[in-house]
Task: structure prediction
Amino acid sequence: MSATSSIPCPPQRSEPPEPRRSRLRHLWRDLEWPVVGALGLLAVGLGCWGFALQPLPGGEGGTIWGLLYLSLQLFVLQSGAIGEPVSWQLNIARFLAPGVAGYTACQALAAIFSAQMGLLRLWFARGHVVICGLGRKGWLLAQALHTEGFRVVVIDPRPDNPRAVACHQLGLTVLTGDATDPRLLRRARAHKARYLFSVCGADDANAEVAVAAREVACGRRGEPLAAYVHVYDAQLYARLRVCQVTLQAGGGYRLEFFNILDGAARALLDAHPAGSADPQAPPHILIVGLGWLGQSVVARAASDRRARFGPGAPPLRVTAIDRQARRQVALLEARYPWLAGICELTPLEMDVCGPEFYRQRLLFGGAGGCLVTDVYVCLDDDALNLTVALDLQRRLREHPVPIRVRIREDRGLTTLLHGLEGQQAGRAGLVAFSILDQACRPETILDGTCEVIARAIHDAYVRSQAARGHTPASNPSMKPWAMLEADLKESNRLQADHIGAKLDAVRCSVEPLVDWDAAEAFAFTPEEVEKLAEMEHERWERDMRSLGWTYAPGPKDLVKKTSPHLVPWSELTEEVRGYDRDTVRQLPVALAGAGLQIYRLPGGET
Result:
């Protein structure tokens, strides 16, 4: 039974102005020790001055060294107890000096015990985030999650990692050690965390972290630990992503693979989609550089267009420039066999540094009109990307064609491009896109295969309910995904996790999408639909009870978490059973949207 959701993902939003209190806190962090040092010197100076004016017993402090010695004793409350009258200089000094000493001591104790206090607080932590690996990706992810309000625990093997100091300054807890050790994961309270991200330096290390996390999360009740494991090798990622649907083992653990280049392509097309809203006016994309990022951009643009306009829309047109364009196009079509039916690919082999590229008039037709609607520059070299983009901008100066430029990190070249964007208002605009900064955002990583399938399941449920005459007033679960309650989202994710078990029960499995039309046309037999619908209801009832829902007659209550359908299959009405049958029938469409299709194993129904 659908109508549910997944891991709550922080919403995308524009950066608000920094609050005044936060600005003051940052200013004090920069000025803290210069100010404390200046106050200490002021206390010494006023002390010397005051003692010089003060008549002292036995004539103490007559020399400059004696005055200095007495002033320094003020910091430890040793020389300030003298008879009245006391000069104002000495009065200020004998209160200021202990104050400076006390503040410094408190800060020192805080620095010494902050790590221990962080570990102590971990004993009570739950719903937090564990990040394994504090390289560039881990650091960007930790900052983003901290900004979104998550409590973050970082594990890194290097005790001298300079980013650990920055994490401490943000108030993050840092554990030093091997993240593949289940004992260290338990110290990080991974079994009570909401998310675990593994961004260590190698695929095998990330895989070991995933295995250790599954061991730690074994037996967890309620919402599972969602482990997001980075895979550096793009080909391995493509294969693991297919296996992921059948790898879900349950038991309080959800495994999700992600890849920076694939995530960057999704984030790029989400922020800067290709073409217009007219299904009969297909975009003509120019891709400069058909490496893994360029290929992912093409595949994402094509799948977004198919999902948005359906099979009747004209195909997406793509012109790809690369030194090995024909080979790369063949590799692209091998990675995404379904592309041939919805995309027209034209490879152009040329060196963007050579004269042929600069003489090429591929942007314009015979009448001088512009042929392309969108340009994506996806070469591996940031400086070369900027060179190519500036040349294309010059050639397109009379045409409003957006140019998106791949930049590895949001640093100097990105700042330069932002300046160029402002100067070129009304002309072909340059848009810098940092693959690391964008792909390491929580919303990008969390929007993985499970989330895509869960969202498609919910959309199919809403369509099915609408076809049966229901409305959001009669069924409060009929909301857009972004507005859906957390428990309902999680239920859809749990349903996505259960797909492998359902397919195994009817001798089926999944493979990469080859033919979109054939994938969506796959149909289970009536006997399979009935069997899988009953399995789905049993799964739904079990998981909803684990999320705190109970049975109650009457309409579903999202606040009290009650539902009249939390009963055995045999006690359901035919109408409610039909909901589960609709969910099963829509499964091929949901998987196609995630780039997967169902196939029958030998011995299955034909």
In short: The first helix runs from residue 20 to 53. The chain has four domains: 20-112, 125-258, 284-442, 449-600. Residues 449-600 form a domain with the Globin-like fold (CATH 1.10.490). Residues 2-18, 423-428 have pLDDT under 50 and may be disordered.
